[in-house]
Amino acid sequence: MTRQKSDGRTVPDDRRKSVGTRGVERRGGGKAATVKQQERQLQLLLGTAEKTTAQAGVPDGAAAGSGLLAAAYAGPKPRDKEGTTAPTTMMEKVAASLEAAFERVEANKGAPGPDRQSTEEVRAHLGEVLPKLEAALLEGSYRPGDIRRVWIPKSGGGKRGLGIPNVVDRTVQEATRQVLEPVFEPTFHNESHGFRPERGCQTAIAAAQRHLEEGYDWLVDIDLEKFFDRVHHQRLMARLAQRVTDKRVLALIGRMLKARVVMPDGVKVSTEEGVPQGGPLSPLLSNIVLDELDAELRQRGLRFVRYADDCNIYVGSERAGQRVMASITRFLERRLRLKVNASKSAVGRPEGRHFLGFRLRREPEDGHVEVNLSKRSIERIDNRVREMTPRNWGDKLECCIANANVYLRGWIAYFGLCTEEVVRKLHGLDAHIRRRLRAIQLKQWKRRATIARRFIQRGVKPKTAWRVVYEGRKSIWALSHSAPAHLALRNAYFAALGLESLEDRWKRHPARIVVPGQQLMLPLG
To answer: pTM score, two decimals?
Structure first.
């Protein structure tokens, strides 16, 4: 059978042989711990000496693992750092990074874990926690605590489970990430954009534009079902062992993966597979797992863009897309032991798919690639605007506008990558937000006579004001769209109150500030 040109393949720079899991060096090593030491957990003394664990309101079972609760750890004190040499092993580097890691965890302002300790509480006793934590890591007696399960709604329906470790456990994870990231980051593929330095959604969309401009306008959209819950521990540890030489670090990560999960009803569930989504280390581990997919796609010479577990492959025809979908699905399910969501994965045109909130479309005549809002993103912003501008707003209108501005600035900073085709939608969003604010103002004026008098004060003719307000039985929402309401509460009125315009901010977005005739080039490496 002859090879078809529509496969959309290119000759790879080099061919990397896939590395199996055979011959993986057995984990172990490190200083052996006695049974008594293994049972003894690292704990933090919160409050004064008179304040017992029960008085502090510590939940049952929170001390298991690294909750760092009532009794202080009685292990050996770490050596004085003055005059010591720089850390050489990976575990020593992890221990030396704890303070910087906590600063990062504190800056993220995350929720407490099962032990209910906030970052402020740990900060108050940081001078006691870090030395004991460092000693526990170096001697191998540190044990991660449980992980609190939290369910959050997904944009496409259903719920996503997040795992929130204790603050101290997050600190250890962050320190581990800071040590491992420089080791693995240079090995990742250029088309991997999720959770990586100097990369993000902007670079992913720019790469997708480039593939479409080159004529690969059929999309293989692969959706992994519950990816973070299905990561195979043995395969992940084998990948880690290829570059991590310190067996103590491998053992530490293995214990993190096996940490029990505390469900909302208090039931504790053991973990046999998956990476807890919510800890600082899980994004790096997910990229390590899916780097094997990137290597396979590169070896086949396929054009693709991957952001975490969202992977889009660009080919030249629908038939080529169907072949790629079938073969990559077999690779993911048989080799990586992951499951492809058949109901959400598809082969189609990019304009019919949702990628990171955007919808891309290539113009056949001139090859121009349109970047617009996806249907899901439009529904989400419409719902969010309704939530931010309730009709029964009880505070000042300026407060409502200030709250809305916080969201609108962040929203347009992300979606400012859209091309000029989005202007019409942004113009409509601005008008819709102003109308909802007019309805709030009319509702706060309460009586129709008051509304008519305010209209007259703002330049509406008296006859028109009284007629429009009392004509028929108009609702507040219908009245907010009347000509007198637009005249009395002009666009300039809301601009003076500080309301941001999405259209104006789009025009000032960094993506618009480019040399005329040249496309914005975002850094990819």
So the answer is: 0.75
Each residue's pLDDT tens digit, 355-377: 999 999 998 888 899 999 999 99
- Which of these, 411, 375, 370, lies nearest to 503 by C-alpha position? 411
Helices 282-299 and 167-184 cross at an angle (nearest 10°) of 30
- Distance from the first to the final alpha carbon of the chain: 39
Q: Chain-centre distance of CA 338, in angstroms? A: 21
Whether 323 and 17 have beta carbons less than 8 Å apart is answered as: no
d(CA 258, CA 83): 37
The answer to whether 221 and 312 have CB atoms below 8 angstroms apart is: yes
Kindly give the pairing relationship between strand 218-223 and strand 261-262: unpaired
- How far out from the chain centre does Cα 323 lie? 31
Single-letter amino acid code for the residue at 309: D
By the 8 A CB rule, do 105 and 171 touch?
Answer: yes
Give 502-524 pLDDT, tens digit per residue.
999 999 988 765 443 444 444 44
pLDDT in tens, 417-465: 999 999 999 999 999 999 999 999 999 999 999 999 999 999 999 999 9
- Exposed, middle or buried by CB within 10 Å (0-12, 13-18, 19+), for 358? buried
The DSSP output letter for 5 is G
- The answer to whether the beta carbons of residues 63 and 116 sit under 8 Å apart is no
Compute the distance between CA of residue 462 and CA of residue 465 in angstroms, rounded to an integer: 5
43 in helix, strand or coil?
Answer: coil
Beta strands in 224-328 (DSSP E): 261-262, 268-269, 303-307, 310-315
| Nearest by Cα to 316 from 218, 389, 234 | 218
Q: Which two tokens stand for residue 106?
A: 């504190």
Q: Residue 137: which H helix or E strand, with range?
A: helix 126-139
Q: Specify the residue for token string 């330095």.
A: 197
CA gap 199, 211 in Å, rounded = 17
Q: Which of 255, 360, 240, 256 is nearest to 305 (CA)?
A: 360
By residue count, the chain amounts to: 525
- Per residue, the 3-state secondary structure of 271-296, as one string, reads CCCCCCECECCHHHHHHHHHHHHHHH
Taking 3-state DSSP, the helix, strand and coil percentages for the chain, each rounded to the nearest 5, stand at 45, 10, 40
Do residues 12 and 112 make contact, with C-beta atoms less than 8 angstroms apart? no
> Hunting for tokens 């029960």 — which residue is that?
54
